[in-house]
Write a structure and sequence with these properties.
single chain, 150 residues, alpha+beta, 2 domains, 3-stranded antiparallel β-sheet
Length: 150
């Protein structure tokens, strides 16, 4: 299907360029998820508890998880099974990941939230790890405010 660009009252047919591979497509989408779909990016190539992988994991405006699976050409029966297989994810683990992602994108973060994230990621809850996680969060979201309440 052709795609056109409107330039005043004239339509110009755009040249369609294919991505080199599925990974390039994934990278472009992940770098622009919020601009294109309003989805906050959480993780790439997230390994599920069933040994599968989610290409891209995000959160929509309502905080609901969004799974994106990239396929270069068409969806085969095995790919359909893979996509439908996400229904079998361990809900608790999946929701923990989404909660961590939502916290990373928050404007205000409490010390308790920082400690919860470290605990869920199986890190020691100590001052060094708390400091490192706060520094990471500031890199991802420079406008974040850390609250001292526990």
């Amino acid at each position: 299907m052709a795609i056109f660009e409107l330039n005043k009252s004239k339509m110009n047919k755009l040249k369609i360029t294919k991505f080199k591979n599925e990974k390039e497509l994934q990278s472009v989408f992940e770098n622009n998820l919020e601009e294109i779909f309003g989805i906050k990016f959480l993780a790439t190539e997230y390994t599920t508890t069933h040994g599968g992988r989610i290409d891209t994991l995000g959160l929509d405006e309502d905080g609901s998880p969004v799974i994106i699976e990239y396929k270069e050409n068409f969806i085969s029966l095995s790919n359909k099974k893979k996509i439908l297989g996400y229904q079998n994810l361990d809900d608790k683990k999946f929701m923990e990941l989404c909660q961590i992602g939502a916290t990373l994108h928050s404007k205000r973060i409490t010390n308790k939230a920082i400690k919860d994230i470290l605990y869920k990621l199986n890190y020691d809850v100590n001052s060094k790890n708390i400091k490192e996680l706060k520094e990471f969060m500031l890199l991802k979201n420079p406008s974040v405010i850390f609250e001292n309440s526990d």
